[in-house]
Amino acid sequence: MGQTATLKKISAQLNLSISTVSRALKNHPDISDKTKRKVKELAALMEYEPNSYAINLRTNKSRVFGLIVPDISNMFYDSFISAAEKDARKSGYSLMILQSGDDPLQEAENLKLCKHYRVDGILISMAPNSYAHELLIKYRDNGIPVVCFDKTPVSGDFDTVCIADEEAATLAAHTITRYNRKKVLAIFGNEELSITKKRRDAFLKVMEKEKKIATEIRYCANSAEARELTQQAITKTSNPDHIFCMSDEILIGVMKTLKRSKLAIPGDISILSMSNGFIPGLLNPEITYIETSGYELGHLAMKRMLENMDEQNPPKAIVLPCRLVEGESM
Length: 330
Description:
The protein is α/β, with parallel strands linked by helices. Helix content is about 45%, strand content about 20%. It has 3 domains: about 5-50, no CATH class; about 60-165 and about 295-320, Response regulator (Rossmann fold); about 165-290, Response regulator (Rossmann fold).
C-alpha cells in the first residue's frame, strides 16, 4: 500500500487501541472472533508483517519447529506434514521442513540448520544407521525438545510417536492365515531400521506357527527393488500365492509387476499391505490393508511437541493403534 504497515496504522483505521490490535493478531482469547477477523483482514490487506527478528530476540523464541523426514514425496510423510503443519499453525508456529533422503550425513546437516535457525523444537524420523543420537541429546539438554516419530531410536531418551508396529504386523499375519494360502512372500523395508525389525519379528511370530504356510522374507529399499523382487518370485516354478507389503512404496512396486503379468488378483495371487490408506483405493482391485495413518501420527507428534512447549516432560512413548481395512485383494 506504499507505506510500511504498523500496529498504529491498523488501529487508527479500525478505531481500536494498539493493544487490542496486537492481541487480536495473537489470537488472544479476550478478543472476539469478529474483531480478530476484522483486524487480520486489514493486516493482510496492508501487508503488515511483525518484526519477527525483534520478537525472537526479546522472547528467545523463533516460533519455528524443525521437521526432518526421509522424503517429502512419500505419501505417509506428506500426510504427516499436513497434519503437523495444521496443528502448528493453529498454535502460532511454523515448520521448517527438511529431507534427509535416509542419509545420516544429510540428517546431521539438517540438524545443524535447525540449530542455526534457532528452532524451538525438532521432530525427526531418523535415517538408517543414524549417528545423530548424541547430537539430539545435546539439543534436548540445551532446551530444544525432540520428538522422534515413525523411525525412532531404540533408546528411551526421547519422546517417540509411532504406529503400533507389532500390532499391525500381527494383524496382517493373522489376516493372511484366514485365507488358506500356501506360499507367502513377505517384502519388508530396510533391514537395518528398527521399524522393519519390529514388524518382521511380529509377523514371523505368527507365521512360524502355521506349519502349512511356507513364508519367505525379503527386503528392499524402494519401489524399484520391490518390482524386481516380485518379478523374480512370480517367474519361479513355484510362485507365491500371496504377497505381503510392509509399506505403500513396496506395494506400488509389487503392483507394477503384477499388472503386467497374467496373474489374477485375488484368484491366482492375493495382496495385503500396510498403508497410509490412499494408494490402495487407487488400485484395481482395491487392496486390503492395515491402516498406518501418517495424518493421525502427525497430529499426535505435534500435540506432544506443543505439550513440551508449556513445560518440560519426561520422555514418553506414544503409540497409534491400527485397523484392518477390507478391500478386494484377498
